[in-house]
């Protein structure tokens, strides 16, 4: 990963906003800018340099694994850095900064003013990395494909092991053991495994429900590899399909295909959701589609943007490098549900699907 390039791109944003310093301390931002998985730390981004501050648990690893200047964190160290660099205004991520953290930051700046007669203005910045993170570089896409490939292999593995009498929990555990033995660092999320009518609940958690012949099986699965996540949902008919469930599965696949048909640069996100809903509406099942069509995937399993016709992201334009899910679903209470989810990356002239 080219972390230096990411910092340079962020510094360009600082210059555009006429900001002296941006402080980021959430774990996802620290991973994105340094590659380091830190439970605590702060990165100071100035227009011409960057510095990482960590505690004693991470100082050695940080110095060995990153090219960024690293120093042991401490109130005086941070204060001296700000004063010596003549910082007049400081940006912070207003989307994740809690009120308590904001009050602590104000208190810290008040100490600087009292000790050095140096006043500083705080500038709230809403999700400063959002526009950078949404476009994945080639290294990120390669890791995402690796995670997707392992998810697919895990799915194939558990399909071969499905048998009557297995519980949803046992299937979920079998998937987890397989992917962790084969390179996954973790699961992207708790696996969703649903038998029979449980599949009508989009986020059903695996239970002791036993698999029966002719059950529908819905599995929403994902893994984490090198900090990046995958997401995939598939439906399996274990025996003879229920006619209604087989019908809505076919309809849902058409909705999925219609959404994919407009996945190319220049389209708005809402166009994808509308395309899927057009199919569902014609077939009389739009009301049974109860969630958004998809979401961004990367360092977080659900990240910007959200793909739906009526969200704040609805007018976001698709650009090459964006990685999103396409996952329409139809859910009928007390019978069952279907969902079909792929991860795709937008290319220069269309998209590439990470799954088969």
Structure description:
The model has no long low-confidence stretch (mean pLDDT 95). The chain is built from ten helices and 19 strands. By secondary structure, the chain is α+β, with helices and mostly antiparallel strands. Strand 3, helix 3 (59-65) and strand 4 form a beta-alpha-beta unit. It folds into two domains: 3-132, Creatine Amidinohydrolase, Chain A, domain 1 (3-Layer(aba) Sandwich); 138-353, Creatine Amidinohydrolase. It has a six-stranded mixed beta sheet with strand order 4-3-2-1-5-6, with helices on one face. The protein has helices spanning 3-16, 27-34, 59-65, 75-84, 99-116, 130-133, 138-161, 168-181, 243-260, 269-283; strands at 21-24, 42-46, 50-54, 69-72, 89-93, 121-125, 186-187, 192-195, 215-221, 223-225, 228-229, 232-238, 294-296, 303-307, 323-326, 329-332, 336-339, 342-346, 351-353. Helix 7 (138-161) packs across helix 8 (168-181).
Count, helices:
10
Oligomer classification: single chain
Secondary-structure-derived class: alpha+beta
State mean pLDDT (0 to 100 scale).
Answer: 95
CATH topology of the largest domain: Creatine Amidinohydrolase
Shape field: elongated
Please state how the strands of the largest beta sheet are arranged side by side. 4-3-2-1-5-6
Strand content: 15-25%
Which spans of ≥5 residues are poorly predicted at pLDDT below 50? none
How many beta strands in the DSSP annotation? 19
Tell me the CATH superfamily of the largest domain.
Creatinase/methionine aminopeptidase superfamily
Number of domains: 2
What percent of residues adopt helix (DSSP H or I)? 25-40%
Please identify, by name, the CATH architecture of the largest domain: Alpha-Beta Complex
Name of the level-1 CATH class of the largest domain:
Alpha Beta
Radius of gyration: 23 Å
């Amino acid at each position: 990963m080219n972390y230096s390039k990411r910092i340079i791109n962020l510094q360009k944003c600082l210059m555009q906003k006429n900001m002296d310093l941006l402080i980021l301390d959430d774990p996802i931002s620290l991973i994105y800018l340094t590659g380091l998985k830190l439970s605590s730390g702060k990165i100071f981004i100035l227009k011409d340099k960057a510095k990482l501050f960590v505690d004693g648990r991470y100082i050695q690893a940080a110095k060995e694994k990153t090219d960024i200047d690293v120093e042991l964190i401490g109130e005086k160290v941070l204060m001296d850095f700000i004063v010596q660099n003549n910082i007049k205004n400081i940006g912070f991520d207003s989307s994740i900064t809690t009120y308590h953290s904001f009050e602590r930051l104000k208190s810290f700046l008040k100490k600087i003013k009292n000790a050095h007669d140096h006043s500083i203005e705080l500038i709230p910045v809403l999700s400063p990395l959002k526009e950078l993170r949404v476009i994945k570089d080639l290294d990120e896409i390669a890791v995402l494909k690796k995670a997707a490939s392992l998810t697919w292999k895990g799915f194939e593995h558990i399909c071969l092991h499905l048998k009557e009498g297995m519980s949803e929990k046992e299937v979920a555990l079998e998937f987890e053991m397989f992917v962790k033995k084969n390179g996954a660092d973790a699961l992207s999320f708790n696996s969703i495994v649903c038998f029979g009518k449980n599949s009508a609940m989009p986020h059903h958690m695996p239970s002791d429900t036993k698999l029966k012949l002719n059950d529908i099986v819905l599995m929403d699965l994902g893994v984490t590899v090198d900090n990046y996540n995958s997401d995939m949902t598939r439906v399996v008919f274990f025996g003879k399909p229920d006619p209604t469930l087989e019908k809505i599965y076919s309809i849902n696949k058409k909705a999925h295909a219609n959404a994919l048909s407009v996945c190319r640069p220049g389209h708005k996100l809402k166009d994808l959701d509308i395309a899927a809903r057009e199919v569902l509406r014609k077939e009389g099942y739009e009301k049974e589609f109860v969630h958004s069509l998809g979401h961004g995937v990367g360092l977080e399993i659900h990240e910007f943007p959200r793909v739906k016709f009526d969200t704040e992201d609805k007018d976001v334009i698709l650009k090459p490098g964006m990685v999103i899910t396409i996952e329409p679903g139809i859910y009928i209470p007390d019978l069952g549900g279907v969902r079909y989810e792929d991860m795709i990356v937008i290319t220069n002239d269309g998209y590439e699907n990470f799954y088969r």
